[in-house]
Design goal:
Elements (H helix, E strand, L loop, with lengths): L24 E6 L10 E7 L4 E6 L4 E8 L1 E6 L2 E6 L2 E5 L5 E4 L6 E8 L10 E2 L6
Antiparallel strand pairs: 1-2, 2-9, 3-8, 3-10, 4-7, 4-9, 5-6, 5-8
């Protein structure tokens, strides 16, 4: 199926509910569930000061994370990597990662994962408990 201007869907952060299961405010905007994507998905993560997204890894997908505002520390297999605004980081398949906002200001990032796992429940493997 070819996408046309008539079949394209625009989805905003206010159009989807936040997912706080792993911490932060994660919103998956473009996905199989929201727009019928077949190769990956895209979303945002907002972290207040001190907030985290708990450690997990993706057995099928690599992740791209672009920090739009603030600074995010990403622990990749335990090693901290600082991602300031207007910078991105690639998270390879199978690498454990945890997102942290260690700064005093809110941070906002855009993420994309591809390819899709064969089933949604196979997309994430949690390696630490839920926050709080």
């Amino acid at each position: 199926m070819t996408a046309t201007a008539n079949s394209a869907r625009v989805v905003g952060t206010d159009d989807v509910a936040p997912n706080r299961r792993r911490g932060g405010d994660v919103r998956t905007l473009l996905s199989p569930a929201t727009v019928g994507t077949t190769t990956g998905f895209l979303g945002t993560v907002t972290l207040g000061p001190g907030e985290v997204v708990t450690e997990h890894w993706h057995p099928y997908s690599e992740e791209y994370l672009f920090c739009v505002r603030g600074t995010i520390t990403v622990r990749l297999d335990g090693d901290p990597v600082t991602v300031p605004a207007n910078h991105g980081v690639h998270i390879p398949i199978g690498v454990r990662h945890r997102l942290m906002n260690e700064a005093a200001d809110e941070a906002l990032a855009v993420f994309s994962l591809s390819p899709l796992a064969p089933r949604p429940e196979l997309g994430h493997v949690d390696t630490e408990g839920q926050p709080g």
